[in-house]
Amino acid sequence: MDRPVVVVTGASSGVGRAVALAFARRGGQVVLAARSAHVLDEVARECAGAHRAAHALAVPADVTDEAAVDALAQAAFAWGGRIDVWVNAAGVGILGAVDRTPPQEVRRLLDVNVMGVVHGARAALAVMCRQDSGVLIDVSSLLGPVIGAPYMSAYAMSKAALVTFDDILRQELALAGARGVAVCSVLPAAVDTPFFRHAANHTGREVRAVPPPATPERVARAVVRTARRPRRRVVVGPSARLLTWGHALAPGLVRAVVTRVTEHRCLAPRGTAPDTSGILSAPSASTAALRGGWAAGRRTALRRAALLAAAAAAGALGARSTGRAPFVGRRTRRTRLRP
Question: Catalytic annotation on 155?
Answer without folding.
Answer: yes
